[in-house]
Amino acid sequence: MTTTPAADTVPTAAALALGDDALVLSHRLGEWAGHAPVLEEEVALANIALDLLGQARVLLSMAGDEDELAFLREERAFRNLQLVEQPGGDFAHTIARQLYFSVYQHLLHDRLASGDGPFAPLAGKAVKEAAYHRDHAEQWTLRLGDGTDESHARMQRAVDALWRFTGEMFQPVEGIDGVDWPALERDWLGVIEDVLGRATLTVPDGPRTGAWRAGAGRQGLHTEPFGRMLAEMQHLHRSHPGATW
Amino acid sequence: MATAAARDTAGSPTAYDAPAGPGDTDAFQRAFDAAVAADERIEPRDWMPDAYRATLVRQIAQHAHSEIIGMQPEANWITRAPSLRRKAILMAKVQDEAGHGLYLYSAAETLGVSRDELLDKLHAGRQKYSSIFNYPTLTWADVGAIGWLVDGAAITNQVPLCRCSYGPYARAMVRVCKEESFHQRQGYELLLALSKGTPEQHAMAQDAVDRWWWPSLMMFGPPDDESQHSAQSMAWKIKRHSNDELRQRFVDICVPQAESLGLTLPDPDLQWNEERGHYDFGAIDWSEFWDVLKGNGPCNEQRLSRRRQAHEDGAWVREAAAAHAAKHSDDTTGATRA
Question: What ipTM goes with this model?
Fold first, then answer.
C-alpha cells in the first residue's frame, strides 16, 4: 500500500471489481457488530471487516474518489461478486461466505503479489490479511461441521446455499493480466474439498452458477438484498449533497 | 504481589487458603489494611476481605457489561457511516469496546467469577450497566457526542482507576484509558467537522450535544451525600475521588472544549466562579437518573433484549465449539483446534 500507481496506468474496471468485493463484504461483516455469538468473535469479525475496508479504500482510490464511488453509484454500477453481497444469515452462512471468499482472495492476491502489475503492492499486504481470514473461516468450518448435530446441519445448509455463487469468482476480471483462472479455480476447489472433508461436510454437487449467467456481479447484475444494503449504506451521505464529514 | 512487611508476617496468604482460626483472620486483615495504606496493589492470590471482593466483582462486572451494551448505540451507525474514513474509525472503536469487555471479564475472573456467570446475571437483570447506554443514537452526530461527552466522562472516571488498589483492574484500566482517549478525540473531531460544515450538519451536532450533556453529567453517579457505596470504596482505594469532584472536573474540561467546537451546552446557569476556581452549573434532574436506572429509560428494554437475543442466537455456535473441542481434546496435532 506504499505505492499507488498513476491513475492512467490503473485498469479501473479491475480496481472496482476487487475494491467492491472488499467494500461490500466489509459492510456485511459490520452488520454483526453487537450480535456475534461470543465476545471473541465481535473482535475477530470486526478485524476482518476493517482489513477489507482498508483494502477497499486503497482500491477505490486507484479508480477515483473513494466516497463518491462508495456512496454515489447506483446498484448496477457496482462490480462485486454476488457472493459477497449475500446477507449474513446465521453464523454458519457468514462463515461459509467467508470461507469461499477468503480462500479465493488468498489464492488470487498471492498470484497478484508475485507479479509486477499495478495491484502487486496492495496484494502483498492483502495476502497476509487474507491468510488470517481464511484460517479463521477454516477453523470455524471445522468446529461447526464437526461440532453438534445442529451445527453440522446448519453448516451443511450454508455451504450448499452459497455454492451457486462460487462459479463467478473464476471468470477472468478485465484488467487483471497474468492470472491463470482455470488453475486458480482448481486450487480453490482443492482447498475447499479438503476443508469440507475434514469438517465432515459433503461437498455440494449443484451447479456453481445461479440462474444468472456466471460473472453477473462483475457486470453489474446483483441480487435483491443488495439494493437494500446500498440504500442503508448510502442514505446519510446522499441526504447531504456536497457535505464533508 | 504486594510485599508489605506486615503481610510477610501473615505468611503470604492466598485467596484460596482459609485462615486457620480467628487469630489468622485478624493477621490477614491487618496485612491487607497495611498494603492498602501503603498504596500497594492487592493481587488475585492475596487474602482480601469478602466485602472488598464482592465490591470489586460488582464494579468490574458493571464496567464490563457497560462496554458490551455500549457497543449497541454506536454499532447502530456502522452501516450508515457517511464516509469510508468515518466507517473505519467507528468500526475500530466498537471493536475496541469488545476488547475492553474481554479484559474486564478477565479481570473479574481473577476474583473467582466466570464470564458466563456474569453474563447470566446481566441477562437476568441482576447486574447493571451504565445507564447512559439507555439513551438512543438518533442521528450521526450522536456518534460524535458519545465520543466527546460519554467517553470523556468515562475517562474522567477511569483515569483514577489506573491507581485502584486491585492490581488486575488497575492494569486493565491503563490500556482501556489509552484507547478511550483516542475515542474521545475522534468524537470531538467528528463534531468539529459537523459544526464547521453545512447549517444542517451544525444543527445536527448541536441537537446531539443538547441531548447528551445532562445524561453525561449523571454518569458520575448520585451526589456524594446520596452515594451508597462511595465511602467504603474510597477507604479501600478502589475509588480515589468522589462523584461530585469528578463531575466538577469534567464540567471544567468541557466548557472550553464546547467553545472551541462552536457549540453551546444546554445549561443557562453555566458560568465561571472566580472564587471557587470552577464552573458553576445548574441542578441535575436526579429523578430522571433514578427513573432510567430503574429500567424506564428510552432504550432499557431494547438494549437488554438485543443482548439476550444475541446470546440465545449464538448458543448453538458456543455448543458446537465446546463439542468440537471435547471430540478433539486428545488430538495431539492440534490441527483442528482453536
Answer: 0.95
Q: Classify residue A142: in a domain, yes or no.
A: yes
Q: Taking the mean position of all CA atoms in its chain, how far away is CA A86? A: 10
Task: Find which of B317, B327, B331, B337 to mutate to test the A interface (most A CBs within 10 Å of its CB).
Answer: B317
Query: pTM of the entire structure?
Result: 0.92
A98-128 burial string, b = 16+ CB within 10 Å, else e? Answer: bbbbbbbbbbbbbbbbeeebbbbbbbbbbbe
What whole-number distance in Å separates Cα of residue A69 and Cα of residue A60? 7
* Within-domain flag for A235: yes
Q: pLDDT truncated to tens, each residue of chain B (338 aa)?
A: 444 433 433 444 444 444 555 567 889 999 999 999 999 999 999 999 999 999 999 999 999 999 999 999 999 999 999 999 999 999 999 999 999 999 999 999 999 999 999 999 999 999 999 999 999 999 999 999 999 999 999 999 999 999 999 999 999 999 999 999 999 999 999 999 999 999 999 999 999 999 999 999 999 999 988 877 788 888 899 888 999 999 999 999 999 999 999 999 999 999 999 999 999 999 999 999 999 999 999 999 999 999 999 999 999 999 999 999 999 987 655 444 44
Tell me, what CATH number does A113's domain have? 1.20.1260.10
B201 reaches A (C-beta below 8 A): yes
Taking contacts as CB-CB distances below 8 angstroms, the residues of chain B near A237 are 82-83
